[in-house]
Amino acid sequence: MEHRLSKRTDGKLGLLIYKRGMPVATGQIRDASKRGLFIATDHTDIQLNQTLEIEFRFPDKQQNQCRRLKAQVVRKTDNGLGVDFDGVENDDFTIAALVQWLGKHRRPMSGFPVGQHAYESLKEDFYEATQR
Question: What SUPFAM superfamilies does the annotation carry (predicted)?
Protein backbone atom coordinates (compact mmCIF):
# COMPACT_ATOMS: atom_id res chain seq x y z
CA MET A 1 0.00 0.00 0.00
CA GLU A 2 1.26 3.45 -0.90
CA HIS A 3 1.61 6.12 1.76
CA ARG A 4 1.71 9.61 0.28
CA LEU A 5 2.44 12.70 2.31
CA SER A 6 0.29 14.90 0.09
CA LYS A 7 -2.78 14.37 -2.07
CA ARG A 8 -2.24 13.77 -5.80
CA THR A 9 -4.29 15.62 -8.41
CA ASP A 10 -4.69 13.95 -11.80
CA GLY A 11 -4.39 16.09 -14.89
CA LYS A 12 -2.69 16.58 -18.21
CA LEU A 13 -0.38 19.42 -19.13
CA GLY A 14 2.48 19.43 -21.63
CA LEU A 15 5.96 20.48 -20.58
CA LEU A 16 9.59 20.69 -21.59
CA ILE A 17 12.30 18.89 -19.61
CA TYR A 18 15.64 20.66 -19.17
CA LYS A 19 18.99 19.25 -18.08
CA ARG A 20 21.74 21.71 -17.18
CA GLY A 21 19.71 24.56 -18.68
CA MET A 22 19.17 22.90 -22.07
CA PRO A 23 15.80 21.51 -23.26
CA VAL A 24 16.18 17.77 -23.85
CA ALA A 25 12.68 16.29 -24.03
CA THR A 26 8.94 16.78 -23.91
CA GLY A 27 6.58 15.25 -21.44
CA GLN A 28 3.17 15.54 -19.92
CA ILE A 29 2.24 15.98 -16.31
CA ARG A 30 -0.11 13.13 -15.37
CA ASP A 31 -0.50 13.87 -11.68
CA ALA A 32 0.82 16.41 -9.25
CA SER A 33 0.96 17.31 -5.60
CA LYS A 34 2.65 20.04 -3.64
CA ARG A 35 5.58 17.62 -3.22
CA GLY A 36 6.09 16.33 -6.76
CA LEU A 37 4.87 15.14 -10.17
CA PHE A 38 4.61 12.12 -12.38
CA ILE A 39 5.71 13.05 -15.91
CA ALA A 40 4.86 10.83 -18.87
CA THR A 41 7.81 10.86 -21.28
CA ASP A 42 9.74 8.51 -23.52
CA HIS A 43 13.06 10.21 -22.74
CA THR A 44 15.33 7.68 -21.03
CA ASP A 45 18.62 9.56 -20.61
CA ILE A 46 17.77 10.61 -17.06
CA GLN A 47 19.20 9.17 -13.85
CA LEU A 48 17.71 8.70 -10.40
CA ASN A 49 18.53 11.59 -8.04
CA GLN A 50 19.27 13.86 -11.00
CA THR A 51 17.98 17.43 -10.75
CA LEU A 52 15.91 18.56 -13.73
CA GLU A 53 14.00 21.66 -14.63
CA ILE A 54 10.52 21.50 -16.10
CA GLU A 55 8.90 24.31 -18.04
CA PHE A 56 5.19 24.67 -18.70
CA ARG A 57 2.54 27.27 -19.31
CA PHE A 58 -1.16 27.36 -18.56
CA PRO A 59 -2.84 27.43 -21.99
CA ASP A 60 -6.00 29.23 -20.86
CA LYS A 61 -4.34 32.06 -18.94
CA GLN A 62 -4.29 35.59 -20.31
CA GLN A 63 -0.56 35.85 -19.82
CA ASN A 64 1.34 33.25 -21.81
CA GLN A 65 4.22 33.27 -19.38
CA CYS A 66 6.27 30.09 -19.13
CA ARG A 67 6.86 28.78 -15.63
CA ARG A 68 9.86 26.74 -14.57
CA LEU A 69 10.37 24.46 -11.58
CA LYS A 70 13.27 22.34 -10.38
CA ALA A 71 12.72 18.74 -9.34
CA GLN A 72 14.74 15.70 -8.38
CA VAL A 73 14.10 12.36 -10.11
CA VAL A 74 12.98 9.83 -7.49
CA ARG A 75 11.40 7.16 -9.70
CA LYS A 76 11.74 5.91 -13.29
CA THR A 77 9.28 3.67 -15.10
CA ASP A 78 8.77 2.59 -18.71
CA ASN A 79 6.11 5.33 -18.93
CA GLY A 80 7.88 8.25 -17.32
CA LEU A 81 9.41 9.84 -14.25
CA GLY A 82 8.45 10.57 -10.68
CA VAL A 83 10.00 13.83 -9.52
CA ASP A 84 10.11 15.45 -6.11
CA PHE A 85 10.21 19.15 -5.26
CA ASP A 86 11.76 18.62 -1.80
CA GLY A 87 15.41 19.48 -1.53
CA VAL A 88 15.39 21.98 -4.41
CA GLU A 89 14.53 25.66 -4.27
CA ASN A 90 11.20 26.49 -5.91
CA ASP A 91 8.42 29.02 -5.84
CA ASP A 92 5.67 27.48 -3.68
CA PHE A 93 3.12 29.76 -5.36
CA THR A 94 3.90 28.24 -8.78
CA ILE A 95 3.56 24.70 -7.41
CA ALA A 96 0.23 25.53 -5.76
CA ALA A 97 -1.02 27.21 -8.97
CA LEU A 98 -0.06 24.14 -11.01
CA VAL A 99 -1.88 21.70 -8.71
CA GLN A 100 -4.92 23.98 -8.61
CA TRP A 101 -4.97 24.39 -12.41
CA LEU A 102 -4.74 20.62 -12.97
CA GLY A 103 -7.63 20.08 -10.56
CA LYS A 104 -9.84 22.53 -12.43
CA HIS A 105 -8.88 21.49 -15.98
CA ARG A 106 -9.08 17.75 -16.20
CA ARG A 107 -8.83 17.49 -19.97
CA PRO A 108 -9.43 14.13 -21.62
CA MET A 109 -6.65 13.17 -24.01
CA SER A 110 -6.11 9.83 -25.65
CA GLY A 111 -2.39 10.28 -25.46
CA PHE A 112 0.42 12.74 -25.56
CA PRO A 113 2.92 12.84 -28.39
CA VAL A 114 6.45 12.35 -27.16
CA GLY A 115 9.67 12.14 -29.07
CA GLN A 116 11.66 14.51 -31.25
CA HIS A 117 8.75 15.73 -33.43
CA ALA A 118 6.62 16.52 -30.38
CA TYR A 119 9.62 18.18 -28.74
CA GLU A 120 10.15 20.54 -31.70
CA SER A 121 6.42 21.35 -31.89
CA LEU A 122 6.13 22.06 -28.16
CA LYS A 123 9.32 24.13 -28.20
CA GLU A 124 7.86 26.26 -31.02
CA ASP A 125 4.61 26.73 -29.07
CA PHE A 126 6.55 27.89 -26.01
CA TYR A 127 8.61 30.31 -28.11
CA GLU A 128 5.54 31.79 -29.80
CA ALA A 129 3.77 32.21 -26.45
CA THR A 130 6.67 34.15 -24.98
CA GLN A 131 6.86 36.48 -27.99
CA ARG A 132 3.26 37.74 -27.63
Answer: PilZ domain-like (SSF141371)
